[in-house]
Write a structure and sequence with these properties.
Bound molecules: nicotinamide-adenine-dinucleotide
Number of helices: 16
Strand order of the largest sheet: 14-13-12-11-7-10-9-8-15
Helix content: 25-40%
Structural class: alpha/beta
Number of strands: 15
Length: about 450
């Protein structure tokens, strides 16, 4: 029964004065269960922001069964031209084009007959685009972080609830092969009760932040505006799933600290002549930001943001329980009673027995897609859930809780690391929402 039919039935029963226990029970289940929308046979997509990440998603979506990109939007006409060429070359009909400036997505949302508006734009545009999509009856999907302030996190939650639409933050790291292996091991109870986790985004972005194209046009500016964890979701998403955040536990409060800001200044001094405008820029973002989150069930999470210093890439990716732990970079496992005492095992050795079934289902289709295949997995799952009328793997409460760390860490950093409460975006439903299952293709 879809939501509309359910409401009709419920309304009929109430009018007839017959709110039976069955109807009441179903009604409660609807309130408490995760949001699902009526199934969509062919998901029509408007894609907004076709730069580095957007073009990767466009390429994936052309291979995912059951969807069509019927409209494309970018402020840069070269990017919409690329999308038209790529979509038609794949044998799909030519999409409508919106490239009349930074608010042309509003026209796309208002005029196009779409099921989903998916955006991979600079951070400042994520929320306006999602809100416009939902206001016009479309589901929204957005790159990470979904929002950069706590108010904007609430705006997404309120719009999704008001318009009864999905608003999904596309956290691809949740679908990483090793992240899904760790999640599967947690679900199998291999690590016992999970007590602590660590994650982060530790990526030397100096050349990208100073590039004359792509993220160089907008990402560095945030380093002048906000001293916080600007990009918390890659590290947090996978461990939040392992800890059932918003589904049995939730982020309660955090404390955050940033160190000095040196990396971008030094890089500008080394790469630009003295008269270059980049040499006069001032940065407030501490090169390393470290945050501790306490959950409502008393567990702890350590989250780091580190993008301005020379270093190899890491997301840390650690989940620890009463019986063992997973630790990434490099991927290692220790299971008491199974691993040699006090010695790591290679996580890869666990893949055959414990690899996540989703990877077993569609690893071949995902091969060659961005970030080792995980980007294809997330796009595939989004479309499948929409087509089958299922709750999405990640929902608007996850988008809000994970993204809220940007605004909350800024607040804590600016107040001598004072503890800051994380809002309960579920308004109490985290206690009853079911844990994320072992999803399949
Ligand atoms: N999940 C990941 O692994 C991952 C990796 C890279 C980037 N991202 C995220 O993807 C998003 C985009 O990053 P990117 O690297 O693709 O940046 P990018 O600069 O390469 O692409 C952004 C695109 O948006 C367009 N754009 C800007 N303002 C617009 C507007 N108002 N309307 C329509 N189009 C607009 C730009 O012209 C550009 O083509 C960001 O949120 C970023 O955090 C995620």
């Amino acid at each position: 029964m879809d939501r509309r039919d359910f409401l009709k039935t419920t309304a009929g029963a109430v009018v007839a004065g017959a709110a039976s226990p069955v109807v009441e029970a179903m009604s409660a289940q609807r309130r408490d269960g995760p949001f699902a929308a009526p199934p969509i046979e062919l998901v029509r997509i408007g894609y907004v922001g076709i730069g580095g990440m957007g073009s990767a998603h466009v390429n994936n979506l052309l291979k995912v069964p059951g969807c069509r990109i019927t409209a494309v939007c970018d402020v840069n006409p070269e990017r919409t031209a690329w999308a038209v060429q790529t979509i038609t070359a794949a044998g799909h009909p030519e999409p409508a084009v919106y490239n009349r400036g930074p608010r042309d997505f509003e026209r796309l949302c208002a005029e196009e007959d779409l099921d989903l508006v998916y955006n991979a734009t600079p951070w400042e545009w994520h929320v306006p685009i999602c809100l416009s999509a939902m206001k016009h009856g479309k589901h929204a999907a957005v790159e990470v972080p979904a929002a950069m302030t706590v108010d904007d996190c609430w705006a997404l939650v309120e719009a999704a609830e008001k318009h009864q639409r999905h608003c999904v933050m596309m956290e691809n790291c949740n679908y990483g092969r090793m992240e899904m292996l760790a999640f599967h091991l947690v679900r199998k109870g291999m690590f016992g009760e999970i007590l602590h986790a660590e994650g982060g985004y530790l990526h030397d972005l100096r050349d990208i932040k100073f590039a004359k194209t792509g993220e160089g046009l907008w990402r560095r500016a945030w380093s002048s505006k906000v001293n916080a964890n600007l990009y918390p979701t890659h590290g947090l998403g996978p461990v939040a799933n392992c800890m059932d955040i918003n589904r049995g536990d939730r982020f309660d409060y955090l404390v955050s600290m940033s160190g000095p800001s040196r990396g971008l200044q030094n890089w500008a001094a080394e790469h630009f002549p003295p008269e270059a405008p980049e040499r006069r820029e001032k940065y407030v973002l501490g090169d390393v930001n470290a945050t501790l989150v306490k959950t409502a069930n008393g567990r702890t999470i350590y989250v780091v943001h580190d993008t301005n210093l020379p270093r190899p890439y890491s997301r840390i990716h650690m989940v620890q329980g009463t019986k063992g732990l997973f630790q990434g970079y490099p991927d290692r496992v220790y299971v008491e009673g199974r691993s040699p005492a006090h010695r790591w095992e290679q996580a890869g050795e666990y893949l055959e027995e414990f690899g996540h079934p989703l990877w077993k289902d569609i690893a071949a289709q995902a091969a060659g897609a961005g970030h080792g295949g995980m980007d294809y997995m997330e796009d595939y799952r989004l479309i499948k859930c929409l087509r089958e009328g299922l709750p999405t793997d990640m929902n608007v409460y996850d988008a809000a809780a994970l993204s809220s760390l940007v605004g909350l860490t800024a607040r804590s950093v600016s107040q001598r690391s004072r503890p800051v409460d994380v809002p309960d975006f579920t308004r109490g439903r985290w206690r009853t929402l079911p844990p994320l299952g072992i999803v399949r293709a």
